[in-house]
Amino acid sequence: MTRISGVSLRRVLDSRGNPTVEADVLTVSGGFGRAAAPSGASTGEHEAIELPPGEAIAAARKHAVPRLVETVHAGNQREVDAALRGADGTENFSALGANSAVAISMAAAKAGADVLGAPLYQHLGGTFRGDEFPVPLGNVVGGGEHAADATHIQEFLAAPVGAPSIQEAVFANAAVHEEVGELLADRGVAAAKGDEGAWAPAIEDAAAFELVAAACETVEDEFGFEVGFGLDIAATELWDGTAYQYGDESRSPAEQVEYVAGLVDEYDLVYVEDPLEEDDFAGFADLTDRVGSEARSTSHASGKGPRADRTLVCGDDLFVTNVERLQQGIEQDAGNSILIKPNQIGTLSAAVDAIELATRNGLTPVVSHRSGETEDATIAHLAVATGAPFIKTGTVGGERTAKLNELIRIAEDAV
Ligand code: PGA
Ligand code: ZN
Fold first, then answer.
1. How far is ligand 2, taken at its centre, from the CA of residue 67, in Å?
2. Of 230, 237, 280, 281, which Cα lies nearest the Cα of 260?
3. Half-sphere exposure in the Cβ direction for 133 (13 Å, CA)
4. Which ligand 1 atom is nearest residue 370's CA?
5. Contacting residues for 96 by C-beta, under 8 A, at least 6 apart
6. Which of 215, 269, 331, 412 makes an SS bond possible with 179, Cβ 3.0 to 4.6 Å?
């Protein structure tokens, strides 16, 4: 029933106005799925390769589509993804392009779900229980590669860990974003928005910490549950091969660990992503030992939930959703969390493999968007299907709210 009868590919716009790959998958029984590849700006060195969309589409038409049509079943995700791997024939999708691969992989999953008449998250293996939604980490202030002349730290992320429902969590993040905007306006600081919709003011990182901490506290009081915050330092972008460069300030690797550990203590951070450059497993292990193994020192009275009991030290560029790099991290105790971006590895199956390996070893998976996004909401379904405790998908802007609103809709299925 789910045998693939056709695959079409096209260039569509992403949220930065760049072209990206969109795929449609059709089945012989009339099933239909459509998905588009996101795109990073602060990409990791070890990610699967994104080709220029025109090249990726031509390669997929030539090598992948003939292997899929009339042969492979959209309902069998492993079979679809093995065909994509076979058509590519490289380690890192450099022949097909991870952008073509992930678009086809996700579109096939949707076509499989369509034939079954099931929501995508159910087809991918999950049931949804209202008390087990993924907590959204919402980018509210940022700079780095996502905005010029803003903070050195790439993302300051609201983390509504005490929220009783996905809806409350989503609106809390939007309230933090709004509150930060008002605090900036009060101080006469003009601020545009970066690629992910976060405020991108030309302020020092220290000032951003104060603003975000104040905004989270206000929203915490208003909503009545814990709203902490976290960071994506995206430290590879600050690393010059010897030290981490924060404008005029420079930190050695040891000083960087010290600095981040100090921030975790001072702000009771829920989450720290990429605190060190993408090959520093030992530095990750050091920091995880310092801040990631003990209970958070939170003094927040309200609703400290199970997701907030330790600071997450999360590898994005370190692990690139790759089970081999994750295995190395597990062996070295480098990090206690992994970011999951399907386009970093090229298929949904490989992303699920990384989530399962992480979960089996006590690491917390965080399913994530990219800075370049589309309306595609597959990651919302992936997070629910795999029971991921967190999802990182921005706060405002249509390509971000597409995922958040999908989570709100999925929650209506809760029994
Ligand atoms: P990217 O940024 O999509 O530009 O890589 C997101 C992140 O670093 O988490
Ligand atoms: Zn990151």
1. 34
2. 230
3. 30
4. 3
5. 51, 56, 59, 60, 63, 64, 84, 87, 88
6. 215
Nearest to residue 271, comparing CAs of 221, 356, 338?
Answer: 338
pLDDT for position 257: 98
pLDDT at 337: 98
Cβ count within 10 A of residue 372: 23
Six-digit token pair at 130?
């209202």
Q: Which residues on neighbouring strands pair with residue 10, listed in sequence order?
A: 22
Gyration radius (Cα) of the chain, Å: 20
Q: What's the one-letter identity of residue 174? A: A
Active site residue 110: no
Q: Which ligand is nearest to the CA of 372?
A: 1
Pocket of ligand 1 (CB under 6 A): 40-43, 145, 232, 234, 316, 368, 370-371
Q: What parts of the chain have a pLDDT lower than 70?
A: 128-130, 297-307, 415
CA distance linking residue 347 with residue 349, whole number of Å: 5
Q: Is 196 a catalytic residue?
A: yes
End-to-end CA distance of the chain: 30
Ligand 2 center to residue 273 CA distance, Å?
Answer: 6
Measured CA to CA, the distance from residue 266 to residue 246 in angstroms comes to 19
Q: Which residues contact 271 (CB under 8 A, 6 or more apart)?
A: 137, 157, 159, 229, 230, 231, 311, 312, 314, 337, 366, 390
Q: Which amino acid is at 186?
A: D
332: left (phi over 0), alpha (psi -120 to 50) or beta: alpha
Largest CA distance in the chain: 62
Q: How far is CA 36 from the centre of its chain?
A: 15
Confidence at residue 303, expressed as pLDDT on a 0 to 100 scale: 46
Dist CA 356 CA 341 (whole Å) = 14
Q: Which two tokens stand for residue 403?
A: 């995922």
Could you give the domains of the chain?
4-118 (3.30.390.10), 135-414 (3.20.20.120)
Comparing CA positions, the residue from 194, 19, 177 lying closest to residue 100 is 19
The pLDDT of residue 415 is: 55
Question: How many angstroms separate the alpha carbon of residue 47 from the centre of ligand 2?
Answer: 12
Residue spans of beta strands (DSSP E) within 235-315: 244-246, 249-251, 271-273, 312-315
Structure tokens at 389: 């405790």
The confidence score (pLDDT) of residue 219 equals 98
| CA 372-376-378 angle, 5° bins | 110
